[in-house]
Write a structure and sequence with these properties.
The chain contains 13 helices and no strands. By secondary structure, it is mainly α. It has a domain at 81-245. The longest helix is centred in the N-terminal third of the chain and has 28 residues, at 53-80. It comes from Tilletiaria anomala (strain ATCC 24038 / CBS 436.72 / UBC 951). GO terms for molecular function: iron ion binding; oxidoreductase activity. This is Putative ERG25-C-4 methyl sterol oxidase. Its main location: membrane.
């Protein structure tokens, strides 16, 4: 391990202070490579390799997005094919077909390359304009990364609640948001299955927090934004997965939304507008039908545990209304 670290240090040092000038090495003039950890050294090496920070950031941002999005969604495709996992499916009678999965994948890929790629490519110039650190090393402390990402979660959840709720208003729903609601029983790949305008509108909440924070204090590293984007993608895909596992976050963080919350939104088409947290829906009363529905489900399971069939339990609950 020491040999690998020493070799990497020597490689990085050669890139920064080369005998033969290396294009892009001037980005790190005066940087002491021996003081950097292995991740910071690889970060430096990436930017020196490409030479141009705009190209290096653009490629890294897009590749990261694709790897995380499909890397997180594909396991749910496998789970959908496993009958043993039906007990965790929130709408267990609605399993996405192979055609639905493939049609969704084609549309999402088209959206990624035609709608999101130009936005991702313009990300670096905007970051630089606002004073965000991109290629620079060393990285910020873990504590700083943690509190900044916490702010991003709160900002995005608030923005998303109100923007999402607005998208359910007549014309906006009909011409924009309806596309996302083609699947009444969502699945992981459908997290970004949306109209281009919706991608832009709701995406503003995701990237708006980092931009706003950077504009206010000019103390933000793009690594923090990358970690935030990864967590946000995980959250969005999990919320659309259609599965509620015992280890799902809402089972140990009561105010976390998760699939249990968002799946009902797709099922009912209204209510439960939040992304990460439940508090806006609770405060605004837009989760009342969700709470009643889940309470009935709980009672139905109790009746079935006492020997009733699914049909008998449903009939008994109808009589008690």
């Amino acid at each position: 391990m020491d040999y690998i670290a020493t070799t990497l240090n020597q490689t990085v040092e050669a890139l920064i202070n080369p005998t033969t000038p290396v294009y892009g090495a001037d980005l790190y003039t005066g940087v002491d490579a021996t003081t950097l950890n292995i991740f910071e050294q690889w970060w430096l090496k990436w930017y020196v390799y490409w030479g141009n920070p705009v190209i290096a950031t653009g490629i890294m941002s897009f590749v990261l997005h694709e790897i995380v999005y499909f890397g997180r969604a594909i396991p749910f495709i496998i789970i959908d094919a496993m009958p043993s996992m039906r007990k965790y499916k929130l709408q267990d009678d609605k399993i996405p077909t192979a055609k639905q999965q493939w049609d969704c994948t084609k549309y999402v890929l088209l959206s990624h390359f035609t709608v999101e790629l130009p936005q991702i490519w313009s990300f670096h110039p905007i970051c630089e304009y606002l004073g965000m650190s991109t290629h620079s090393v060393p990285f910020p402390s873990i504590l700083k990364i943690a509190w900044q990402i916490s702010l991003f979660f709160i900002f995005e959840d608030t923005f998303h609640y109100w923007a999402h709720r607005a998208l359910h208003w007549g014309p906006l729903y009909k011409y924009i948001h309806k596309k996302h609601h083609e699947f009444a029983a969502p699945f992981g790949l459908a997290a970004e299955y949306a109209h281009p305008l919706e991608v832009f509108i709701l995406g503003t909440g995701t990237i708006g927090g980092p931009f706003l924070l950077c504009a206010l204090n000019r103390d933000l590293h793009i690594l923090t934004v990358y970690i935030w984007i990864v967590l946000r993608l995980f959250q969005a895909i999990d919320a659309h997965s259609g599965y509620d596992f015992p280890i799902s976050m809402h089972n140990w963080i009561p105010f976390w939304s998760g699939a249990d919350h968002h799946d009902y939104h797709h099922q009912a088409f209204v209510g439960c507008y939040s992304t990460s947290f439940r508090w806006w829906d609770h405060l605004m009363g837009t989760d009342l039908s969700y709470k009643r529905y889940r309470a009935r489900q709980k009672e139905q399971k109790k009746l079935m545990a006492n020997g009733m069939t699914d049909k008998e339990a449903k009939e008994a609950l109808l009589k008690t209304k």
